Amino acid sequence: MSSPSLSPSAGRPRGRALRRTLLALTLHAAQAFGAPMLSAGKMTFVDANTVVVADWRAGQLHTLTLPPAAPGTPAPFNLKDVSGAIATALRTRPERLRFEDMAVRPGSEVAYITLSVDGKPVLVSVDAAGKVGRVDLDRGKRESVAIGDLPAADKKLWRDTPAASFTVTDMKFHEGKLYVAGLSNASFASALRVFDFPFKGGAAVSSVEMYHPVHNQLETRAPIRKMVITNLNGEPTLVAAFTCSPLVTIPLKDLKDGAHIAAKTVAEFGWGSAPAGMVMFDAGQGPMVLLTHSHKSADLMSVADIADASTKPSLSTPIKWPAEPTLGIKSTYIPMRVAHIDNQDATFFAALRRNEASGAMELVSMRKGLFLRLSDFVNEYDFADFKYPANDQWSGVHRTLRTDEGYADLAPPAKP
Known about the structure:
Oligomer: single chain
Largest sheet: 6 strands, mixed
Shape: globular
CATH architecture of the largest domain: 6 Propeller
CATH class of the largest domain: Mainly Beta
């Protein structure tokens, strides 16, 4: 697939990189005097004690060094009203909370959540017992860098949504570099920024185009929403998902300052939804990628299938609406819809989701390989007079899930 003839780097001053470096140094100096954070959005852990938080209002990324934590004992989250617990800890009301992102601190079994309270940024920690801690964003050890090339402050989407709020849509750390997806102020607005880490200056910025089978066009504005980094056929590669819902691959070696990248579209998972989370894991069947969505069930695919698709030409023809809504890689349907998801440990995913009946935000765990919470449903197995038939394959699974979810007393006996 060919790229448009217009290059996003055309006409850019040669001194852009120098100016970004000077701006970054200025922000480092400003941070030394305690400049406050203005927002807390997307986040990612670099290691067990270091988290990076995006501050789109200030146009910065902040590295926060957390106090050392003892290794956590694996235990599932079953917090049915984590919004209430957080509100109590912050001495506010749940309806004043806006949840932004969630990530699990490696090795700790503790989830960290970015949010705002009446527009003010907050970072909290939550353990499986429901204990909430607040991270002091302004007094702890913090290093900052300018994101650069920000969307115009007065640019709006859907009238009221600042385009700048999409400056960072996802972040991943890989081998000494921080990969940041989002929007820039260039005509090709979909951007991938790559920062050396620890921060040493501005980012190398690449713009991204991809073919979108649902829309049947090359797209250069809408940003990557979720991504992971893995080796495909021996090549370190970014696997990324966009709204409505194409999946693409981009070799990391192609990401250079000023480059315009033609991503390879390897799958189309259907219209009318936005990626909510993307995680890699291995539950015994080899490396897998789980892609969750805002308005439909999740897609599970193997890294081997993505690698195979990446050796073939990019998708370049539209879907056949409505009879054939998908193209490319065939995923496995997973009955999961969450707001945010992360690897908790080798056994569980941790997920933030909204309870549709109560409106409360829940922090729950889901067992890898099973991908659901049995207590979300009422079915034939749940009635007191139900008897599992001899040699039933599900009684053991149900016993495990009921115990995970806090209902060990309701778990079926070892034998029917």
